[in-house]
């Protein structure tokens, strides 16, 4: 389900931030400021399991907020749900939504380098050279119109 930041309940926001910390900070052993100024302007896609637990997430960001193009970020799947195709489905929904809102623009993301092939499978192409972001190799990728 898609929600604008003001429509998120306190419990939903808590679960989003908890899962982002679990994966991006603890699991990946990366100290960085996950809560940034982009959440308030983003649209949030929450993937829930049958028990109503948050198991997948991403956020869509309007153009000129992070990049010139609209972008997708903070893509995650809870560890016990990985390998079941949820990442593919989540990204397809994310791309579809961003395209519906900003149909005349490409979509940009900053991918962890080890996920480059996954994003290429969705049509994204690398832009520029890889770089370190919070000590994790990343590469910017673009999904052209």
Structural commentary:
- This protein has 145 residues and is an alpha+beta fold.
- Helix content is 27%, strand content 32%.
- It contains 3 helices and 7 strands; from the N terminus they run βαβββαβαββ.
- It has helices at 10-27, 86-101, 116-120; strands spanning 2-4, 43-48, 54-61, 71-77, 107-112, 125-133, 136-143.
- It has a 4-stranded antiparallel sheet, with helices on both faces. Strands 5-7-6 form a 3-stranded antiparallel sheet.
- The longest helix has 18 residues, at 10-27.
- The protein is globular.
- The mean pLDDT is 95.
Features:
single chain; 145 residues; alpha+beta; 4-stranded antiparallel β-sheet; 7 strands
Relative helix content: 25-40%
Radius of gyration: 14 Å
**Which secondary-structure class do the elements indicate?**
alpha+beta
The total count of strands amounts to: 7
Low-confidence stretches: none
Mean pLDDT: 95
Order of helices and strands: EHEEEHEHEE
Beta-strand residue percentage: 25-35%
How many helical elements? 3
Strand order of the largest sheet: 1-2-3-4
Straight-line distance between termini = 25 Å
Largest sheet: 4 strands, antiparallel
Gross morphology is globular
């Amino acid at each position: 389900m898609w929600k604008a930041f003001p429509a998120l309940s306190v419990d939903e926001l808590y679960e989003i931030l908890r899962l982002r910390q679990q994966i991006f900070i603890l699991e990946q052993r990366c100290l960085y400021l996950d809560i940034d100024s982009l959440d308030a302007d983003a649209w949030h896609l929450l993937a829930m399991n049958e028990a109503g637990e948050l198991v997948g997430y991403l956020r869509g960001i309007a153009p000129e907020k992070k990049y010139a193009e609209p972008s997708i970020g903070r893509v995650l799947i809870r560890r016990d749900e990985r390998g079941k195709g949820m990442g593919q489905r989540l990204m397809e929904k994310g791309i579809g939504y961003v395209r519906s809102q900003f149909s005349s623009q490409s979509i940009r993301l900053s991918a962890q380098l080890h996920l480059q092939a996954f994003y290429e499978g969705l049509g994204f192409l690398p832009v520029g050279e890889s770089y370190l972001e919070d000590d994790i190799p990343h590469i910017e990728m673009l999904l052209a119109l």
